[in-house]
């Protein structure tokens, strides 16, 4: 794959939602706003800024409404909010959100653990969520968690995901988000499923959300792009994981995805600034940095322009 081919992929940074879910510390609203604005300033085209999940179940998301309400309409044009019910859409929209990621699992067991209802119940409620998003001039994504494997049921058949994506109740979604929630997929599986979603379901954008549990986050993301995904999710330093999915570890690192895809807005200077933002954020949270590219940026290979301070 050439650089120009890979550069088609847009990064959505999910640090402020999926990245924070498993952390033991909650970032104050002001700090979340600072991170969001710095990411946008550096050129990151899209962000996931929070979740409407119950704060007693996912405490780091407790101030999501405050974050939404403090961002400008222009900033919110780049921001997505995780929702799982029509009521979630209503509350987020009232605060100013206009882009919603309506998420449920392909496997019933994980959906019960994560959202407290069956997959069918989540799908049945989606038309109401779509209508609420459209009423405020917004957009909504169909996000299918556990698209490859489930921590309770094991392998998820491809056809299960295709059937959900083809369900008429989801046809108002602008994108389909295919999620490797556990990070257990391999590139051939990602390419196969994303290709089928592109070819066999209504035409929409495709987002790939991958985790790096088995070290294939970047490879899987590039396979998704090759199959037709236009957006790939990542989190600073590989932060994150699902609190309701045993065995799930951090997201694919945003730094690794950016270093691999080299979008037009990225250069060694902006990359170095992202690494520094990541390091500061992870230090505040007491979390390890899992990004290989960030580690490379701190190497002593000073003749390489992507090393912080190198060649500049």
UniProtKB/TrEMBL annotation:
Could you read off the lineage of the organism from its UniProt record?
Bacteria, Bacillati, Actinomycetota, Actinomycetes, Mycobacteriales
Q: Which SUPFAM superfamilies match?
A: Aldolase
Residues of the signal sequence?
Answer: none
Q: Which InterPro entries match?
A: AIPM/Hcit_synth_CS, Aldolase_TIM, HMGL, PYR_CT
Q: Which family does the record assign?
A: Belongs to the alpha-IPM synthase/homocitrate synthase family. Belongs to the HMG-CoA lyase family.
Q: What name appears for this protein in its UniProt entry?
A: Hydroxymethylglutaryl-CoA lyase
| Keyword list, A-Z | Lyase, Metal-binding, Transferase
The record's annotation in Pfam families points to:
HMGL-like
Task: Give any GO molecular function from the UniProt entry.
Answer: acyltransferase activity, acyl groups converted into alkyl on transfer
Question: Which terms does the UniProt entry file under GO BP?
Answer: ketone body biosynthetic process; L-leucine catabolic process
Statement: the UniProt record of this protein carries the keyword Lyase: yes
